[in-house]
Amino acid sequence: MKSLLYYKFLFILILVAVRFSAFAQLDDRMTWSADGNSFYYSDEGISTFSLVDRNQQVLVPAQQITPAGKKEPLEIKSFSFSSDFRKILIYTNSKKVWRYETRGDYWVFNMSDSSLKQLGKSLPSSSLMFAKFSPDGSRVAYVSGHNIYVEDLASHTIKALTTNGSRKLINGTFDWVYEEELNCRDGFRWSPDSRAIAYWQINDSSTRDYYMLNSTDSVYSRVIPVEYPVAGQMPSPFRIGVVPIDNAKTQWMKIPADDKNGSYLPRMEWAANSSELIVQRLNRSQNVSDIMLCNAKTGDVGLIYSEKDKAWIDVISEWDDEYKMGGWDWLKNGSEFLWDSDKDGWRHLYRISRDGKHEVLITNGPYDVMHISLIDEKNNLLYFIASPENATQAYLYRCPLDGNGRAERLTPENQPGTHEYELSPNGKFASNSFSNYYTKPQHEWITLPDHQVLPGSRPANPAKASDSAASNISFFKIVTADGVSMDGWMQKPIPFDPAKKYPVLFFVYTEPGGQTVKDHFGATNCHVYPGSLAKDGYIYISLDNRGTPAPKGAAWRKSIYRKVGQINIQDQAQAATEVLRWPFVDTSRVAVWGWSGGGSATLNLMFQHPEIYKTGLAVAGLNNLETYDNIYEERYMGNPLETREDYIKGSPITYASHLRGNLLYVHGGGDDNVHYDNAEMLINELVKYNKTFQFMEYPNRTHAINEGPGTTEHLNNLFKNFLNQHCPGGGK
Q: Are strands 662-668 and 694-698 parallel, antiparallel or unpaired?
């Protein structure tokens, strides 16, 4: 019989594991203690749990965070502590800004006197963004209505640090395209001495609006403008300012501007002191990265480190989630910083001196660093995620931080698959979430580096070969006619008779934004198909082509440069050709589906290779590459003013006249990402060539097409009925 401690620990483990996998909504309901031996987590109140003695203690009961006159406590979306751990900043009543819930209400709970105070009470409800304690804990700064405010926690006096903010002049946060393509949301930083704030200002005055039409919420339609720079349009100008709290007079940094072409600034942080900033600037083509130091008082700027690439340079948030809310990894008391580069063909980490003149390779070998887990400078260790032998999996490694040594795998060999770790700041403890295609998700608390399970935590069970053999799912490799080795997974029908022939449904994404072939539980789930594809007699397959972000090196990832809609489609078609040689595949029943970039790929495959794909289901696909935003398209395709022929070759609309099979095309009328004009452009082209197809618009729905009652069920049934009708399941 299990002890009460076991179940308590298990409950906390599950709660925290949810937080670890929920960054997509910026949910942070757990935070580590300063020493790394315990953590704080929120349920109704806020509690602490020690990993040393497994002792739980309620720190703030629910009744203490219940506002006066209210019956229920604050619903905690996230929380953070002041530097002395005496005040708690609570985020609640959150609302979406495009993708994520980044605006809401903030409250401060003071543990010294148990007081609970709401911040920004004179500002609109749910309008505060990215609130942060000053390092000395005396103030909180936040953004509201495109301006930056600071609130004194003793007097609760609110002071505006900027006053000119608008939809077209954005202070302290970002416009649509910076958020979507550079992962930039939180746009201001406290100085370490708490005396000033550095911030971005984005000027969208010359950026044209895309007009979405809300025709469902009133008898009169309503226009919704979104500042949206399409490919070929100049980037919105930026400025970095430093504003002292006492006089609120901004000093602008003199970062060199490219008035002809424009540029981007995806990273900014204080340079390990209160007198300098460090920034990363990308040229418009995003193939030149310049790192600069800025004098916070004078605005003078000096270049310290530069890198060029024949294709593009990935921004740091691809491998360091911490940057999504701000951060820069400094070493040796600010004399060095950590940086990534794939200049040797693999994504590796380097130590760069403050003046940029010296660098040391830390990770070394034929593998990509997938994610930084912990920088333990005290013990000269770097923990990171990698998978040198299998690009569909992920494991924990460590190596010396000084570069003098090779990587050591810490994940046990009997746990093959995909792992997500959350390491304590001292490197002694970690949460390990593990699964593979035949092992359900498991969570365990462990010690490091021995990877032993903590007493009271349920250990993750080793993967069983018998479970793998019994599964109707398998992973495989295919070598195409061009000699490209592609990873894939396949889910076979239940039951399966190898003497019969079955229909095949391919799931595709194919672009740099996503990898579909990952070895984790549920990888083969088709979320738009109600019921079971396997039980309904379908073979379900996905393959990762060149250009997807699999950890296979820079050559693999960047081979798609200026060839989106070409090389990825070629790889997929050649791989499908190999699949169709399998004796149990019915070549007359071949379907393909995808969403967003996968919708684009579905259309391209249907139009460019009608001899292979007989049925297609494309959701929210981009049909004309020239209509998408400038950061994404120009990064991977170049400036259309110079490379327009590549845009034409990569756009599904170019090949619409070749449609021969059965096509279902779905789009949301309120899609702020892949705009609805894509749908109407494609419809016009298909009508022009007298092509029969099925089209479904979901009015006023976004790119997710999940808003409104009944929407998801309707889309799922539409998907299933179309597939069953035009590509019926079952063996023959």
A: parallel
